[in-house]
Design a protein that fits this description.
Elements (H helix, E strand, L loop, with lengths): L9 H8 L2 H10 L14 H7 L3 H10 L14 H7 L3 H10 L3 H4 L9 H7 L3 H9 L15 H6 L5 H12 L10 E2 L3 E5 L5 E4 L9 H6 L4 H41 L10 E4 L2 E3 L5 H5 L1 H27 L6 H30 L3 H7 L8 H45 L1
Antiparallel strand pairs: 1-2, 2-3, 4-5
Length: 416
């Protein structure tokens, strides 16, 4: 049978793409084709399971049941592949078609069963399904001496982790340190539900506290979690860099507007009458319209200080509780900065804009909207957009808080 550069047969490609009719034709011509491995050691069944093609999986297992026993590198079974790709439908089918106790509890080279893997990946539905299967040894121990309960207890806590832990405890799961040893017999496992079983491993001993600190998840899964953390850090770094650039530009604009206000400054000293003098270098706007000048400077100063605050927080790296809190704080400060920058723009335009009559004269008599009206409508649209975005974020935050608190309360009552 012809193979491509990656060692894959036509059955590999048909299985991966879910072509049921083509798979049926190829199996009729050569049932042994489902036993061929590609350069990665994967059979057509592996590709079908990883893609979640349940019907193709059924056909391949029916053609050659022994293909379910083929292992990949690091001793991973077809069940491990289904769990790693979060294909619960394919996992259920495999357990139903070839659900022997030995097969369901197969371990990889690190001693991890599919329950260890599902727990480490925090796949609640998969873990719940596995602990409900009578074939599943829920207290199996991996090479690090961890049960599934050990893994979830030594991972960062969140709602999924709490739900998985609750399912494990209800099913009778134990920590390896709570498993009493039976000399020459292994470990007797007895949980709250009265389930008992024996793991044939007379030399097994509970892990030391140092081991629990050193390894908090199955070894082959650490790389994936590390990659997720690195991607999150990279995204946060890019967002902080963007905020830093924007805040620096706004601070520069605000500083320039303060030292060179709209309308300019007096070139030389002039007598304003009534004993008042217009000093060189002072704002013309401050003399002609003091009230508007005060509003302009107030808005500009708030924008300047807020943008400097963003630069200060990013540069100093304030150690807040979570990165998410820092991002929320910076986002709120940026909203304040942009809002007052818009107000500064409005006061600047109103200060230098001509009156309505002058505007009509400059435009050769063509009637145009008053500049005050244009600026007012523009700012109204801006404030409306800002308020809408802020409202959406507030609603999302409120829903998130309610869900967190509600699930935590339910969990506490269940534990009691």
């Amino acid at each position: 049978m012809a193979l491509d550069l990656r060692g894959r047969s036509p059955l590999h490609l048909a299985s991966a793409n879910g072509y049921v009719e083509m798979v049926n034709i190829l199996l009729s011509a050569n049932p042994d084709a489902c036993l061929i491995r590609d350069e990665d050691g994967r059979t057509p069944l592996h590709l079908a399971v990883m893609k979640g093609e349940v019907e193709v999986t059924r056909m391949l297992v029916g053609a050659r049941p022994q293909v379910t026993r083929y292992k990949l590198d690091q001793g991973e079974t077809i069940l491990h592949s289904a769990v790693k790709q979060n294909r619960l439908g394919a996992l259920k089918l495999l357990v139903e078609l070839a659900g022997e106790v030995e097969f369901v509890n197969s371990k990889d080279d690190y001693g991890n069963t599919v329950l260890h893997t599902a727990t480490a990946l925090k796949q609640y539905e998969t873990a719940k399904y596995l602990v409900e299967r009578p074939e599943m040894e829920i207290n199996a121990v991996n090479e690090n001496g961890f049960t599934a309960l050990d893994i979830i207890q030594h991972m960062p806590r969140d709602l999924k982790g709490m739900e998985i832990r609750e399912s494990l405890v209800k099913a009778g799961a134990l920590s390896s340190r709570n498993i009493p040893a039976l000399p020459g017999k292994g470990h007797l496992l007895m949980g709250e539900s009265g389930i008992t079983m024996v793991i044939e491993n007379p030399q097994l001993s509970p892990p030391a506290a140092a081991d629990l600190t050193e390894a908090k998840a199955p070894t082959p899964l650490r790389g994936r979690e590390k990659k997720i953390r690195e991607n999150k850090k990279e995204w946060t770094k890019k967002k902080l860099d963007a905020l830093m650039v924007a805040a620096t530009l706004i601070a520069g604009m605000a500083f320039q507007a303060a030292v060179n206000p709209p309308g300019g400054v007096w070139d030389e000293e002039k007598d304003a009458g009534e004993g008042k003098k217009m000093l060189a270098g002072t704002s013309i706007m401050a003399h002609n319209n003091p009230r508007r000048y005060r509003r302009f400077m107030a808005s500009n100063t708030v924008s300047f200080v807020a943008s400097l605050s963003i630069v200060f927080l990013v540069v100093s790296g304030v150690p807040l509780v979570k990165t998410r809190i820092l991002m929320w704080l910076l986002m709120i400060i940026m909203w304040i900065t942009l809002t007052f920058m818009a107000l500064t723009y409005m006061f600047s335009i109103l200060a230098i804009a001509p009156t309505n009559d002058d505007t009509e004269a400059m435009l050769l008599g063509h009637k145009v909207p008053d500049i005050t009206y244009v600026v007012g409508v523009s700012l109204l649209l801006w404030f409306s957009l800002s308020a809408f975005v802020a409202l959406v974020h507030i609603i999302r935050f409120f829903i998130w808080c309610v869900c967190k608190v509600g699930k935590a309360i339910i969990y506490c009552f269940r534990i009691r």
